[in-house]
Design goal:
Oligomer: heterotrimer
Distance between the termini of chain B: 57 Å
Strand content of chain B: under 5%
Order of helices and strands of chain B: HH
Chains: A mainly alpha, B mainly alpha, C alpha+beta
Distance between the termini of chain A: 43 Å
Shape of chain B: rod-shaped
Number of domains of chain A: 1
Order of helices and strands of chain A: HHHHHHHH
Amino acid sequence: MPSFPHSLASPARFRRLSRRVLPWASALAAGLLGVGLVWALGFAPPDYQQGDTVRVMYIHVPAAWMAMLCYAVMAALSASFLVWKHQLADLAARASAPIGACFTAVALITGSLWGKPTWGAYWVWDARLTSVLALFFLYLGHMALAGAFDDRERGGRAAAILAVVGAVNLPIVKFSVDWWNTLHQPASVLRLDGPAIHGSMLWPLLTMAAGFAAFYVAVLLVRIDGESAARRVEVLTRRRAAGA
Amino acid sequence: MAEFLDMGGHAATVWPAYGAAAAILIGLVVASVRQASRGRAELERLEGGTGERGGR
Amino acid sequence: MTRKRRRMAFLAAGLACFALAAALVLAALEDKVTFFYSPSDLAVEPVGPDARIRLGGLVVEGSVARTGDGLTTTFELTDGAASVPVSYTGVLPDLFREGQGIVAAGRLVGGAAGARVPDAVFMADEVLAKHDETYMPPEVAEALVEAGYWREDPPR
């Protein structure tokens, strides 16, 4: 696992970089999501089987991808924090968890709404749905652990261990539809013999996915800023209390 | 317009899904921005009090 | 540097152990993790007459019939190798049609030894449509059928 580039590891330098990137990421997210929404709701064709319920896919699938990507990022940051004790990695992992939890919630809720007319049920306990629910609880567990200790360092370490161990769930989520019989259909886009989805639906989907990714970067930068301020406040308060 | 809103009879699936996603993601943005600005303000107050410089 | 190395090794070993444990648990739970059985599975491992199971497969073309009251639907469910007659009373999901993949939950009734496929009927109390991974506009689907390119998906 690569260490952070040295230039990024310093909080002050990171902050300067983050300030420069944030407007671009925000504008990119707003633009891509705006175009993607109009495309998905107004111009993409209905599906030959699902009719217009297929439009739920344009948020469900990117949200589910981001839910997994976010967790992978969080697990990598956590491993790097445990091994090299990078403070910035701890801050970024803490900042990532609520975003991932939100993406997972969006994927679960939209999928459930789509399941009712398509499958005939809001929820079934098949391997895909169950493992994504587990992913959601891993995010909640991480958020709870990170704030559970008076000693911030200890909370960060406990949460980081959970994040790394929970990464085992990622391949289970991804391959559950191939390994076992599930009600959830197998992958349509990320599969070996090319997407099983028509171009007129694939492009708006990819636009939305890019918009979600830019949204993630923008919110992540804001949250890292918030986390680093909170950390600094805690250090100063403690120092003052010790001095008084 | 009415036809668009009807979503081929699936309005009850499509609109709640988009609505829920929008509510969650906009809520996340608002909460994140608020947390960051509150943190920065608090830090400024603390550092302003002692003249201590932060950020290393 | 050595301490970092050691932490890294601990982390990697811990993760590997946990992954192994998870893989073993999932392998042991294979039956529970599997959401449905196929008609062929029933022929190989008979289930008891009272066991509630899920059965998944394709609705055989031309097999769907509705009984007099219009509420009960009977059809054959196949995975290509074996098929089971199914009877269901209730509202079917939108996607239910001949040739569609579905999952039915219920009990196998009749037939010697509980599960001799030829003379047993699967009494379903729930029918879920299984959607496949193909997404396309209706015009494209029509064009594919007309051109004779429609691939009949091999049953899963």
